[in-house]
Amino acid sequence: MITTVATSPIAGQKPGTSGLRKKTPVFMGRHYLENFVQSLFDVVDCKGKTFVLGGDGRYFNDRAAQVILRMAAANGAARVIVGQGALLSTPAASHLIRLMKTDGGIIMSASHNPGGPNEDFGVKFNMPNGGPAPESVTEAIYARTTSITEYRVAEAQDVDLARLGRQELAGMQVDVVDPVADYATLMESLFDFSAIRAMFAGGFRMRMDSMCAITGPYAVEILEKRLGAAPGTVVNAVPLPDFGGLHPDPNPTWAKALMDELFGPDAPDFGAASDGDGDRNMVVGRGIYVSPSDSLAVLAANAHLAPGYKAGLKGIARSMPTSAAADRVAEALGLHHYETPTGWKFFGNLLDAGRATICGEESFGTGSDHVREKDGLWAILLWLNILAVRKESVAQILREHFHRYGRNYYSRHDFEAIPTDRADAMMAALRGKLSALKGMDYDGLVVSHADDFAYTDPVDGSVSTKQGVRVLFDGGSRAVFRLSGTGTEGATLRLYVERFVTGPDELEEEPQSALAPVIAAAHAIAGIAGFTGRNAPDVVT
Ligand code: G1P
Ligand code: ZN
């Protein structure tokens, strides 16, 4: 039986580029999830459609899945393909949407934000191409949430999501599938599993930290079972509703245990971590950290060593604040390179149009045209493939890379929870003096160009303005200033600094000291302390 429930709009259901993210108790509030899901179904039109459904396993994931299924049935969907246990990593969901030629998918996740009864939850919709819904769709969903008066739900028992196979729910087919199998097959088609297997058989040791989040089952199946890595290679391998209290964000701060191990005595050859929903990655060699911007450049330069990319790349894309290290590789390979605004959605058109094969962001996101999301395990496997073919250490590969292409020292400084008016005033003042900056000399760093980054999508011609202030200096150094679009408390100022060197004697410095002159210039240019009262960042990556 289908029930129509009277409801009224709930304020603040505006999805961002990664869907609607709120505190879990908010999501669990009366009509909250239902209103959003009905608005979504009203916009994408559910009748006769097939969707994929899964999430990162955080608290409320299982119950939300049952609600979404009952609502999909009540709204006339023909079929929903669900990951067993309502689990799917974001890249695996993207793959399944494409593989099964569905009409899109619903992913339950708040990415790298902590999970639990008092932490974060989220729901997002992905399109039939496997990528996040564009702004036109998220805006339409939001508009619908402001006028909703009722939602439809089937009165039925829970679907047994532990049991693989087909079930029926109020006339709708529910196919419970292994969340890992198809994704693992895709990875096998891209990478040289026999070379990687031989490397592990030869004694290569790895530590994969899944941070009690979704990549655990994927990493155990692929690394330990299919590639023969030693049992126990994957730690924190069981997804837990609260991620075991961990903050599942793979960076040197939150994946500190992994960093300690890779820099400690008896360190393994290679370390990696992934985030809550499996789209981010961090890689570490024995005694050496690989910054995401450098990782992107190394992956692009060596991708042809993996079977899935042996024909070469069509192009390389990076977000504007990401270092230009990948551009050096593109130039050397004679490839187009693209500089897009922050956010994975800007890569979608380039991937769909076959203009770029590999993309990356400084915020621990790397991926390719195999899906339409960034993909943590994909990046880790491409690294393993490269290590297996080159038979060199991570440190050797990086050193050789810097010698060949030069080194882009790079760091991001985050100033968090700044009062919004002060952050806005600082950015406004900075924007107001861009034309006056050209030619200014900051202790030997001379400004060659300053602008507010704007992007014209080369595929559909759409224009995105005010994407962050870029100050370029003679010689390839750079400072970028932008305010976070995902922060939750006040404003977060992100300062991205970069310095390019080619001299063989300049390649081995500690990044923060190599960048000190650029950091000083950036502070002087923007007057960070004056506007925000902050001299030092809260987080440095
Ligand atoms: C941050 C990252 C950005 C990433 C986004 C979603 O956004 O900087 O690269 O695409 O999270 O994962 P920001 O808070 O900077 O707007
Ligand atoms: Zn994520």
Quick structural overview:
With 541 residues, this protein is an alpha/beta fold.
Q: Average pLDDT across residues?
A: 96
Tell me the Rg in angstroms: 23 Å
> What is the share of helical residues?
25-40%
CATH hierarchy, class of the largest domain:
Alpha Beta
Termini separation comes to 53 Å
Low-confidence stretches: none
Shape: globular
SS elements, strand count: 27
Number of domains: 3
Any idea what the CATH architecture of the largest domain is?
3-Layer(aba) Sandwich
CATH topology value of the largest domain: Alpha-D-Glucose-1,6-Bisphosphate, Chain A, domain 3
What percent strand? 25-35%
The major sheet is characterized as: 7 strands, mixed
Bound molecules: 1-O-phosphono-alpha-D-glucopyranose, zinc ion
How would you write the strand order of the largest sheet? 2-6-5-3-4-9-8
DSSP summary: helix tally: 19
The CATH superfamily of the largest domain is identified as Alpha-D-Glucose-1,6-Bisphosphate, subunit A, domain 3
| Derived structural class | alpha/beta
Which features would summarize this protein structure in a list?
541 residues; alpha/beta; Alpha-D-Glucose-1,6-Bisphosphate, Chain A, domain 3; TATA-Binding Protein; 3 domains; seven-stranded mixed sheet; globular; binds 1-O-phosphono-alpha-D-glucopyranose; binds zinc ion
